[in-house]
Amino acid sequence: MDEFASIRHWTSGRQSEEWQRERGVRLGIGDDAALIDPAAPIAGVTPPYEYVLAMDTMVETVHFNETTMSYEDIGYKALASNISDIAAMGGVPLQALVSVSVPRQLGPELMRRLYDGLYACADQYGVAIIGGDTTSSPQHLVVAVTVTGAVEAGKALRRSGAQPGDAVVLTGPVGMSAAGLHFLLAQRERGADALAGERVAQLVQAHQRPAPSVRAGRLLLARETCHSLNDVSDGLASEAWEIAEASGLAVSLFEEQLPRSGSMTAYAGAAGIDPLEWMLYGGEDYVLLGSMELGDAAAAQVAFHSEGLPFYIIGETAAGTPAVELIRKTVKGELRQRLAKKGYNHFE
After folding, report:
1. Fewer CB atoms < 10 Å away: N or C end of the chain?
2. Where are the domains positioned within the chain?
3. What is the pTM of this model?
């Protein structure tokens, strides 16, 4: 099967022209480039609006392997990680370009499965797949996705907007994806019965099929009291440092207010690992971390809960040299621990 036959096999019949037209697409897959109507109305976004662009790449042996993810999971997560970047700006995802570099030994049916997962994510979040590129790869599979989105003009939520005296907020638990990955790798090393009996399905799901927080980002944008926002892709500590440095202030996180998934905590205990390590430095949770007016944080929490969405107030910001610290309660009083500026880093 040649390149063009492969593309048709992977993409044809997935999204109707009418469905894509509702998302601003005038010409999708099949020509030299796609055409987008910049004046098309966008559901839920009040004009005038700005476009938001994001791109992520997933590389075999770096981000995934056959032990930790199925091909459907690879496709789903490649798009979900980009949608999360749009969500972190308070935006709505619209279209996606998908480029794949495929080893010759990887047959068209396995790639079809990857596109099954990619389109499952696209349909769930209303994203039109409009084109991309296909090349061969000498050894490893590479999937690169670019997503477009939209946000009300001048309203995008940035890392640099935090103000002293803000509440630090989080839209979901952290550490679950790292725990799921740990379990999958332990399975590979110790066999299928590794740590049997632990409730790990939720953790594996968090790693393989993360849920971008698009609705949460839109709710925070609409409140007009959220000053900064970031998605937790490289770990809570790393993302807090990014806000602290971009905004030029100090961030304090309260250990007792950090949300701990029961399944993650139970698995960490069985594995002999401090769950805080996964929570602070694990990454790939794709929840949102941000700061907002302290006086509106409790009301925002109520609003989130009324929609069945999690929301946690986990810290505060203060004027000062950029830094991130964890405040822990001990029998001797508060212990302030400066958090390392680390998380997942491709060049370390």
Report:
1. C
2. 3-152, 159-338
3. 0.92
